[in-house]
Design goal:
The chain has about 140 residues and is mainly α. The chain has six helices and no strands. The protein is rod-shaped. The chain starts with a helix and ends with a helix.
Length: about 140
């Protein structure tokens, strides 16, 4: 049986319709169709391998970002700051005692500077003798 001209014109009409259809169909749909055809033939799925590789790249990038954040949090002691924020009374008490210790340190420092200045400015007086007497009374 010999193909007639009507068969050729019908094949051409179908080809023209399918070429117009390709403009409407997305690349994702065409990729899925290629995957389906490949799986029917028992071949490896090329686009699935690409998807898996892309997902692995995303996971690796996410892991690197998390590691960077962890190192930043360790260096800035963010966890301690978060603990302070969650317990404000502890912050107040801690700051109160730190203030007391700073005040004591300032007082001791001023006394030492005044002692050295007094020792050199008033060498004739019994400044050091008086200071030792005061310290012995304590």
């Amino acid at each position: 049986m010999c193909p007639s001209e009507d068969d050729y014109s019908l094949a051409e009409a179908i080809q023209q319709l399918s070429s117009k259809k390709k403009q409407v169909v997305s690349e994702g749909a065409l990729s899925a169709k290629a995957d389906l055809d490949a799986s029917k033939e028992g071949q490896d799925l090329p686009s699935e391998g690409r998807r898996v590789r892309k997902n692995m790249d995303i996971v690796e990038e996410f892991t690197a970002s998390v590691r960077l954040l962890v190192s930043i949090f360790k260096r800035t002691q963010f966890d301690q700051l978060a603990l302070f924020i969650t317990n404000p009374t502890r912050v107040l008490i801690l700051n109160f005692f730190i203030g007391i210790l700073r005040g004591i340190g300032f007082t001791i420092g001023v006394m030492m500077v005044m002692g050295v200045v007094g020792f050199f400015l008033f060498p004739d007086t019994h400044f050091m003798h008086t200071l030792f007497n005061l310290l012995q009374l304590s």
